[in-house]
Write a structure and sequence with these properties.
Keywords: Hydrolase. The protein has 136 residues and is an alpha+beta fold. It has one domain (2-130): Hotdog Thioesterase (Thiol Ester Dehydrase, Chain A, Roll). The chain contains three helices and six strands; from the N terminus they run ααββαββββ. The chain has a six-stranded antiparallel sheet with strand order 1-2-4-5-6-3, with helices on one face. It is globular, with a radius of gyration of 14 Å.
């Protein structure tokens, strides 16, 4: 289950990642996040690079789940658009596989607030790689 794997990583715990569900037909995952107050800048919203982290997480897990946990994406490029200020507190991320080939995959992600307003969008071009085991 993604929640076991995602929550085991320190960065995911920092973002408050919780697995919601995976739609295998659409190759789309939904994760819940909790953005802590410590992510908020003096402007009053979550810092942009940290928003990219939420989107990166949800796009990556979409590919992991679409490959039955066998592969993980290695990003070549990530593009992000901030559409509204991202508040601290609960957030919902949706990530999906747009196209998967043997040598390259295309992913997209969206971040919503608790009222289902779209806050940010992203796309990623990545290389499919064997999923790391975490063992050294």
């Amino acid at each position: 289950m993604a929640s076991e794997h995602a929550l085991g990583a320190a960065h995911a715990e920092l973002m408050g990642v919780e697995f919601d569900h995976f739609d295998a037909e659409r190759e789309e995952i939904t994760l819940r996040f909790t953005a802590p107050e410590t992510f908020v800048t003096p402007r009053g919203s979550v810092q942009g690079g940290l928003v990219a982290g939420f989107l990166d997480e949800v796009m990556g897990w979409a590919h992991v789940w679409a490959t039955d946990q066998k592969e993980a994406p290695l990003n070549l490029e990530i593009s992000m658009s901030l559409l509204r200020p991202v508040p601290a507190g609960p957030l919902i991320g949706k990530g999906r596989v747009v196209r998967r080939g043997r040598k390259v995959i295309f992913l997209e992600g969206e971040l919503f607030d608790g009222e289902n307003r779209l806050l940010a969008r992203s796309t990623s071009t990545a290389i499919p790689t064997p999923r790391p085991t975490g063992e050294k």
